[in-house]
Design brief:
UDP-sugar_pyrophosphorylase, mainly alpha, 4 helices, Nucleotide-diphossugar_trans, about 45% helix, globular
């Protein structure tokens, strides 16, 4: 058995209930918030992210690394909400 100390908001999104707390909807919201945080750290304008759900494939970035201005622009240009 191994114990890992990680940031809950980056590594844990439980799905235990059909609706409400710990549901697929709340897990999705946590992942979307993580992606938005990565994009903001990479230099995306908050106004551009407002009201949009952006998905970042693990083939592009696994933990927020490699989000260059060119990659961020491509993500924002190709994903519409």
């Amino acid at each position: 058995m191994t114990v890992l100390k990680v940031r809950r908001d980056e590594e844990f999104a439980p799905v235990k209930n059909k609706e409400g707390k710990d549901s697929p909807a709340t897990a999705r919201r946590l992942v979307q918030d993580l992606y938005k945080r990565w994009l903001l750290e990479a230099g995306a304008a908050p106004s551009v992210l407002e009201g949009r759900d952006i998905e970042i494939s693990p083939l592009i970035s696994y933990a927020g690394e490699g989000l260059t201005p060119e990659v961020v622009k491509a993500l924002l240009d190709t994903q519409y909400n």
